């Protein structure tokens, strides 16, 4: 029942009509994004996801990981899947060509990795770690470290992890205590403990490269005193061969709600004299370099939200099409998908997924324009939009994706609450995505504090002008004029809330933080509605010109109808919640207790 097939029609439609993959292919260095080639790569990725990774998803959930002495043992089939993944070239798809990767665009990265995450998130978290670490090393490492480590990382011979969190620090990286002391030979000796480290240890690859946050004894306090170090599991000789094991080991594995196939480790560094590490970049700039990894990881987690929602939806849709129960408006013998309320649930799920996918793929296109567009203003605008909306992408997509997985259980009814049907795994796996790389509250405070207030809302107003231009174009299509009006109302609510936050400014920080999460949800809904509106206009144009996928295009228009009837009205409620945030600040502590 829990098979997987990539939603290729949606992927192609969004790439062609919203991202503009043909325009991406015309950018310098992006010729490989030619649409026909992209479509063929998507078809091959679908085969690998469905044939290799998806069948292992339940295996990983059932078997989990365990410690055998100091060995971390992963589920059966993981090693073979990793070897095939690497040998097939999928790991290097978007990694730099100068180190052995293929260097393809983010616009192609997004749908391909959505397939990996849909088919087996617990497995795919391992190769995902390679993406952010590679970029961080490219940006900050010296040429010696790059030459020694990056070719092995990009090839998949060596694996990676991000070793950031500590027991006493959690998300507060200013409280990191991991010690690093110079060894006198250019290296450092690290000592301390890290927790919640995904794929912190395993034997799938010959070596593991840890990127570790630590501070020197004389470092300034807080985040200004944190540096970034490369710590290999096995020491590496000058010729690239492996030496003795470094002083780092897994001392425990977390017992998690979901993603059981991914080993989440507690790591001990330096129990026997100090783990050998090498400084990445300059001293005391570790947080800056970490955010290179973190931003890539946040974008990846935003794709998690789409991917797991898609997997749960496919399962719910199949079940609803097969399960016969009760009468539908007096007729017996029909599957439950014919019940109006079940149809509503399915349409709600599909609409949310379509909106999430459209938003995240569009953002992937911004990455490509930011990096490759020779028009400096166009590239800069794309960078501004990425910086502004990264917390929205990460938090709104994962919050919405988890809701879709929850709805899938509801479609199953009582059968959804038992493990045997398998639908619970997707809900359990998706729940952590709302926490990964910063909770929704952390993302919202980033959006409001570090992005909007810092620049007095300038980039958001620029984005609002782009969305307003879409409402103007949409209003010219008679059949879509109602959607144009709804989107205009949504824009007014978002702008009103923006003005409210700016008016509070620095004078009422508690009120601003209390309003931040509602404002993030408000922003996510409006930006997603923008993409749904663009999709509706493209579908309408396709029907007008006699496109041969008319049934599909009519489905896209139905999705837009449902969005603007169901989700667009929610914008007003979130806007009102933003402006009522004072009730949070004013509530006495007594309100928290019975």
Question: How is this structure best described in words?
Answer:
With 594 residues, the chain is of the alpha+beta class. Among the domains are: 136-284, Butyryl-CoA Dehydrogenase, subunit A, domain 2, CATH 2.40.110; 440-588. It has 17 helices and 14 strands. It has helices spanning 8-19, 21-25, 35-63, 78-87, 106-140, 143-155, 286-322, 340-372, 376-412, 423-431, 440-453, 458-475, 481-504, 509-544, 550-566, 570-579, 582-586; strands at 66-68, 71-73, 158-163, 179-182, 188-198, 207-214, 227-232, 234-236, 242-245, 248-253, 264-269, 275-280, 327-328, 331-332. Strands 3, 4, 5, 6, 7, 10, 11 and 12 form an 8-stranded mixed beta sheet that branches. The protein has a two-stranded antiparallel sheet with strand order 1-2. A two-stranded antiparallel ribbon has the order 8-9. β1 and β2 (71-73) form a beta hairpin. The longest helix has 37 residues, at 286-322.
Brief summary of the model shown:
Among the domains are: 136-284, Butyryl-CoA Dehydrogenase, subunit A, domain 2 (Beta Barrel); 440-588. The chain is 58% helix and 12% strand.
Question: Could you say which structural class the secondary elements and strand pairing correspond to?
Answer: alpha+beta
Number of strands: 14
Average of per-residue pLDDT values:
94
Put simply, the count of helices is 17
Weakly predicted, low-confidence segments? none
CATH fold-level topology of one domain: Butyryl-CoA Dehydrogenase, subunit A, domain 2
Name of the CATH architecture of one domain: Beta Barrel
Largest sheet: 8 strands, mixed
Helix content: 55-70%
Give the C-alpha Rg.
Answer: 24 Å
CATH class of one domain reads Mainly Beta
Distance between the termini: 45 Å
Q: What percentage of the residues does DSSP assign to strands (E)?
A: 5-15%
Overall geometry comes to globular
């Amino acid at each position: 029942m829990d098979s997987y097939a990539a939603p290729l029609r949606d992927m192609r439609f969004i790439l062609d009509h919203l991202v503009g993959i043909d325009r991406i292919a015309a950018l310098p260095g992006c010729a490989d994004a030619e649409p026909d080639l992209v479509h063929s790569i998507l078809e091959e990725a679908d085969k690998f996801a469905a044939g290799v990774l998806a069948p292992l998803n339940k295996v990983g959930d059932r078997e989990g990981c365990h410690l055998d002495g100091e060995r971390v043992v992963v589920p059966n089939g993981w090693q073979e899947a990793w070897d095939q993944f690497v040998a097939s070239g999928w790991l290097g798809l978007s990694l730099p060509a100068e180190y052995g990767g293929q260097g393809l665009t983010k616009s192609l990265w997004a749908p391909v990795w959505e397939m990996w995450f849909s088919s087996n998130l617990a497995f795919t978290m391992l190769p995902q770690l390679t993406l952010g670490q590679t970029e961080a090393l490219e940006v900050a490492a010296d040429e010696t470290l790059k030459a020694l480590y990056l070719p092995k990382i990009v090839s998949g011979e060596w694996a990676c992890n991000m070793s950031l969190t500590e027991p006493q620090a959690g998300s507060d990286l200013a409280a990191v205590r991991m010690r690093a002391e110079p060894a006198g030979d250019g290296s450092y000796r690290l000592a301390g403990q890290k927790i919640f480290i995904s794929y912190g240890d395993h034997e799938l690859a010959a070596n593991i490269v840890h990127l570790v946050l630590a501070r020197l004894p004389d470092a300034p306090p807080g985040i200004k005193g944190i540096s970034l170090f490369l710590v290999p599991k096995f020491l590496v000789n000058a010729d690239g061969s492996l030496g003795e094991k470094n002083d780092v080991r897994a001392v425990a594995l977390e017992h998690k709600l979901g993603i059981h196939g991914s080993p989440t480790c507690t790591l001990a560094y330096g129990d026997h004299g100090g783990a050998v590490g090498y400084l990445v970049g300059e001293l005391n700039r570790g947080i800056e370099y970490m955010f290179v990894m973190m931003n890539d990881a946040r974008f990846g987690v935003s794709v998690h939200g789409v991917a797991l929602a898609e997997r749960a939806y496919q399962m719910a849709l199949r079940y609803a099409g097969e399960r016969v129960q009760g009468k539908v408006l007096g007729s017996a013998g029909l599957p439950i998908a014919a019940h109006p309320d079940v149809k509503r649930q399915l349409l709600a799920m599909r609409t949310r997924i379509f909106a999430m996918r459209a938003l995240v793929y569009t953002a992937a296109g911004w990455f490509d324009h930011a990096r490759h567009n020779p028009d400096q203003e166009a590239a800069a605008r794309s960078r501004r939009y990425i910086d502004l909306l990264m917390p929205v992408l990460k938090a709104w997509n994962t919050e919405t994706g988890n809701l879709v997985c929850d709805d899938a259980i509801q479609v199953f009814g009582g059968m959804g609450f038992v493990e045997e049907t398998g639908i619970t795994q997707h809900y359990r796996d998706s729940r952590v995505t709302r926490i990964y790389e910063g909770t929704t509250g952390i993302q919202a405070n980033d959006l409001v504090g570090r992005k909007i207030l810092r620049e007095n809302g300038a980039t958001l107003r620029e984005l609002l002008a782009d969305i307003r231009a879409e409402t103007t174009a949409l209003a010219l299509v008679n059949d879509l004029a109602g959607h144009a009006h709804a989107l205009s109302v949504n824009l007014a609510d978002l702008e009103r809330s923006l003005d409210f936050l700016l008016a509070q400014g620095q004078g009422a920080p508690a009120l601003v933080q209390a309003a931040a999460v509602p404002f993030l949800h408000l922003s996510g809904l409006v930006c997603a509605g923008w993409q749904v509106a663009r999709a509706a206009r493209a579908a309408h144009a396709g029907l007008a010109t006699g496109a041969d996928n008319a049934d599909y295009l009519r489905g896209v228009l139905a999705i837009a109808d449902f969005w603007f009837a169901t989700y667009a009205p929610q914008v007003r409620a979130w806007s009102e919640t933003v402006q009522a945030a004072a009730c949070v600040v004013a509530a006495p502590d007594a309100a928290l207790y019975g």
